[in-house]
Amino acid sequence: MDETSKKKHHDYITLFVDMKKRKTVFITEGKSSETVKNFKDDLESHVGDAQAIENVCCDMSPAFIKGVKANLPNAQITFDEFHILKIINDAVDEVRKEEAKNFGILKNTKYTFMKNNKSITKKQLRKLAELSISRMNLKSMQALHIRENFQEIYHAQTKYDFERLLKKWYFWATHSRLEAINQAAYTIRGHWYGILSWFESRINNGILEGLNSIIQSCKAKARGYKATRYFKIIAYLVTGDLKFELINPNIL
Question: Does domain 2-79+203-246 bear CATH number 3.30.420?
């Protein structure tokens, strides 16, 4: 489950996606805990069983967590790597922006720091190399190494190693003397159980993020929607894998 907006920071809808069928099964307005109740009510109205849901992947929104605990009692929450990295990336960027005030070498390097090794360009790699060999001992580079080290945790072969590496990372992050990184680490510690549950559930919001990008592309093409109702309809049409032939057998 995840939210998306009709406008930037305005008029949200929350999508509930079946991870196995890779399609949106329910959409409701807002991003409060009530969205999960609305999903449960809709599921049960279609003879579904909310208690049969064993795993839920969502972000660290207190509202979503509250809604899942209240309405999906047997569901284990997983906080996936994507949302955790977003928190750490924001912290890295905060360190970089503050340091850029005093070091011109960091000017226009936001995406150099935000990208991972799979998507970074050759030019950005050269820039990182330049920053690495400088004698300024940049805090931004320290923050970047902390983020990269966190990503390596997900290569652990056992849950024991996963938690052991996570604890080591937490100690490093909280002793880094970088306030933004400290706060990100504290947020992760506060959601420890959901991060550890990933090793067993292995679910993530990757599918939903892909569907979200399709919805946002449609929104951009239509230049926005005046009514949230129409935004929901489009979202269902492009991500719901609707079977119109059940209504009209002549549809190809």
Answer: yes
